[in-house]
Input
Amino acid sequence: MNHLTSRFAGHVDFADDSLAGAVLTTGIDGFGAGVRYWIHGDETLSQGELDKAEAALLDVKDLVAAAFVAFAAELTDARSTTSLFRDVHLEEIPEEMACDLFEVDTCEAVTDKVFLDHLHLVGIAINPTATKRVLALDFAIGADKPTDQLLVAVWDRNNTVTVHHES
Output
């Protein structure tokens, strides 16, 4: 049995599952309070691998900023993941609910800036031994009433960021 300690989630036990985590009540360095934090792993994960993966999270503000750069860049392409995610919230949700989520009077008022301003970090996941999905930041529209749709910024082992839509 592997006894690991996460600097953010405390004791980690992968005995029955490949996922462990906690709610970050105070966030990381005061950022991301209330965010759900997940660690993917198994009994082969070492403390050193976990520590190294979590060290990247110490710059969580920079990671969030990088995610927003990726989201903003994608908004220039109407067929991109980020644009389609926005469209889901503007076209497939009743207008009254969409206006409530974005705090606007009409859906036409949801500019790129309004859209990006209403993305809230709701989850962080690390997979210390992965190569393709090493780190993921999950964002939802609306902090207090998020939909079940997530816009996810994913980092691979080469520090390349890609954007995914998950539900």
Observations:
- The beta strands are 4-6, 10-12, 19-24, 35-40, 119-126, 135-141, 150-155, 161-166.
- Residues 128 and 152 are 18 Å apart (CA to CA).
